[in-house]
Amino acid sequence: MPRVLSSLRMGGRLAKRKFRRDFDFLDEIFHFIDDLLAGDTVDPGSEYAVKLAVEELFTNMVKYNPESRHEVLIELQRLDDRIAVSLTDFDSDRFDIRELDEVRTDRPIEERRPGGLGIHLIKQLMDRIDYEYEGRRSRTTFIKMVE
After folding, report:
1. Are the C-beta atoms of residues 126 and 142 closer than 8 Å to each other?
2. What predicted TM-score, i.e. pTM, was given to this entire model?
3. Which CA distances in Å does 73 have to 42, 76, 138?
4. Which end of the chain has fewer CB atoms at under 10 Å, N or C?
5. What is the CATH number of the domain that holds 36?
């Protein structure tokens, strides 16, 4: 499926694409992100953070909603000072990552319960996280400020 690029009024670029709900599509997702950022001077740390967040959210959608036959929509916006990314899962239960309990990384590993580190990293690395849920459509959007 070809990528779609169009101009935004704010002088940035927008790319949208649906991906099959399958872990094997992660490489295509990373290429999709690379295509949008091609030619930009985005610091490697910010680019890595965006890819990590997309990977974590996408794999959670695949892992925790395996019965869905719908593809996952990923939208990327590159603006002067930020990258905005939305992942939309169709026909899903509500899952707002902002409401999850904080992971206690200050406790010994034996005292922690498994899971949640990926979401914890997203919360630490992103500058803003938004969530919308309506009609079994779950959409998580995050913003990463870039230099």
Report:
1. yes
2. 0.82
3. 23, 10, 10
4. C
5. 3.30.565.10
Strand partners, 90: 137
**Tally of domains in the chain:** 1
Going by C-alpha positions, the residue among 86, 122, 88, 84 that lies closest to residue 103 is: 122
Domain that holds residue 15: 4-145
Q: Which residues, other chains included, contact 48 with Cβ-Cβ below 8 Å and sequence gap of 6+?
A: none
Q: 21 near 91, Cβ under 8 Å?
A: no
Burial of 55 (0-12, 13-18, 19+ CB in 10 A): middle
d(CA 76, CA 85): 5
Closest CA to 82 of 132, 17, 147: 147
pLDDT tens-place string over residues 100-145? 666 565 666 666 565 556 787 888 899 999 999 999 999 999 999 9
